[in-house]
């Protein structure tokens, strides 16, 4: 493996700025890594080396000309296929958008390009971000680099696996109920869901518009902070975008200090249902935080127990509305019945052929919840629970600076193990969903390997809305303590992937 692919984004940026390596060399090293291992991992759906190298060459030209460049200029980045791109297809993991190329870049992609980051390709995901394992992709599952027989999390398993497999130092994810944080937990990476509205959703193919949030995936807390600094900010194209300035997240990491920080352990997310090894590593992390200046207190969030039920009414209802645009008329797949048919018949045939079973399940559920006579009983009641969850957060943050829990109940399970049990799959997001219902920021970072199976475990920090810097402060401090204890990053303990062909990489 090229040493360039082992560097963090921050370290690679330093090498690029010093002139020790060119953007083209960095891009080529990562393209070579993708070619070597992605046949086994299947993190990417689309890679276009010609476009990637041309963009890298433009960064090198600007640097040689003495132009002012961003802190991450020349650093490669992978893009979750939920974000539209004008030079690569955007399918959202679905057959109904197979081959679709947008006329514009999603705002986070446009901001990354403007800052000089170099997109490598589009990463695999559960179809329309509906899933916790990346097994619901229409293009086949992604595999966890720690164990190729296990899931990489979802819906953004492709982005997390690409970063964990050293195919990219950074990636974009999107998080509707945990789709950045849960994959980070099972792949030993860092994943951040910013405050709702901190990062523009313009050009992000919508699942649930009141829940979706774009955010960074990386191997270090500092790298995630550097990427969030690039993409955070107001976008007039997104009506939910917050119109305010943001402090530097990177500076929050560099100045990380636990002294006097009050960290609240969520009682309802610290008990039965969590794997023994997950709880063990979590408890060790809490002890490490306490021994280095943080005050650990227990807080209660009694309405968190209803979060999954509320989420699986709100999210499908919004998905039902958002996916109605895929009607065979304007763009995407068009599947006509034999001998033709009416508009309604073509629409039905297209959706039958283009949508996978999980998407159909959630659309049917959401449509039912919004139907006449049931709206108040289901969708309306779920929104009331959402308000109670928000009140739980407000009450908790009156007592503590940040909240903490395990990111997910278990380590990575085996591919196929939960496909026939949707409820068991949904329960993977029990710890992550509350943050989306409340719009608060959340971070997952690795804290070790579970003793039962040697697989990564993540810890989740949650902060009040607009206080993303607190996550980076506590996350950076804990990461530094853990790296010192381990003698290097956790991913250094991962087994090296066998060199494969590019089979399966589109």
From TrEMBL:
Residue stretches in coiled coil: none
Subunit and interaction comment: Heterotrimer of A, B and C subunits.
Enzyme Commission number: 6.3.5.7
Name of the protein in question: Glutamyl-tRNA(Gln) amidotransferase subunit A
Enzyme class name: ligase
Catalytic residues, chain numbering: 80 (charge relay system), 155 (charge relay system), 179 (acyl-ester intermediate)
Cellular component annotations (GO), alphabetically ordered: glutamyl-tRNA(Gln) amidotransferase complex
Keyword Nucleotide-binding annotated: yes
Catalytic activity as recorded in UniProt: L-glutamyl-tRNA(Gln) + L-glutamine + ATP + H2O = L-glutaminyl-tRNA(Gln) + L-glutamate + ADP + phosphate + H(+)
Domain of life: Bacteria
Family matches, as Gene3D superfamilies: Amidase signature (AS) domain
BP GO annotations: translation
Keyword tags: ATP-binding, Ligase, Nucleotide-binding, Protein biosynthesis, Transferase
SUPFAM superfamilies: Amidase signature (AS) enzymes
Signal sequence coordinates: none
HAMAP family for the chain: GatA
